[in-house]
UniProtKB/TrEMBL annotation:
Cofactor(s) needed for function: glutathione
Keyword field: Cytoplasm, Isomerase, Phenylalanine catabolism, Transferase, Tyrosine catabolism
Protein species of origin: Hylia prasina (green hylia)
Annotated compartments: Cytoplasm
Domain GST N-terminal: 1-82
Protein name: Maleylacetoacetate isomerase
PANTHER family: MALEYLACETOACETATE ISOMERASE (PTHR42673:SF4)
Length: 210
């Protein structure tokens, strides 16, 4: 497999965690979203992913984009360890939390949106994350065990950790979200989350390396 990734992209990080958890070796090709006006806009990358976004994964003779589509494919082709619970109710909760982050928070504070916001981008990002986290904290109080849903790492956790990193980057006050904070801390102690971390990627700038 070949993963087209950017060290700071939360969507790419989700996929890196899934690959690490499932023990799938891959080649990483960095796509710098800032440099050269954004390498994702090159004709070469557009041919690979017409949406001009990372991540993209070449695997088993196909090219996939969209982090959840990639993770679902990995789940179906490499079922162990599983990232979706067997219980239908828990599985629905995992998908709900993942969608909450992937559709309801992350796109609103994505690079392409922030570019449109000019001087208000920090305030905009903080507002989007805060409103999303207020709801997420409430949801997790009903679903969480050790992790987002019960005590097994799931797709929901793969979405949570990169989003908390975004919140910290945009200086969001995390004190109102003790459940999110507790789960995030527990997940960051797991090896798959450590090795996939933005501070430990081949394209991480020297000043941001762990």
């Amino acid at each position: 497999p070949v993963l087209y990734s950017y060290f700071r992209s939360s969507c790419s990080w989700r996929v890196r965690i899934a690959l690490a958890l499932k023990g799938i070796p891959y080649e990483l090709v960095p796509v710098n979203l800032i440099k050269d006006g954004g390498q994702q806009f090159s004709a070469e990358f557009k041919a690979l992913n017409p949406m001009q976004q990372v991540p993209a994964l070449k695997i088993d003779g196909i090219t996939l984009s969209q982090s959840l589509a990639i993770i679902n494919y990995l789940e179906e082709t490499h079922p162990n360890p599983r990232l979706l619970p067997q219980d239908p109710k828990k599985r629905a909760q995992v998908r709900m939390i993942a969608d909450h982050i992937v559709s309801g928070i992350q796109p609103l504070q994505n690079l392409s949106v922030l570019k449109q916001m000019g001087e208000k981008k920090m305030e905009w990002a903080q507002n989007c994350i805060t409103s999303g986290f207020q709801a997420l904290e409430q949801i997790l109080q009903h679903t969480a065990g050790h992790y987002c849903v019960g005590d097994e790492v799931s797709v929901a956790d793969l979405c949570l950790v990169p989003q908390v990193a975004n919140a910290e980057r945009f200086k969001v006050d995390m004190s109102p979200y003790p459940t999110i904070t507790r789960i995030n801390k527990a997940l960051l102690e797991l090896e798959a989350f450590k090795i996939s971390h933005p501070s430990r990627q081949p394209d991480t700038p020297a000043e941001l390396r762990a």
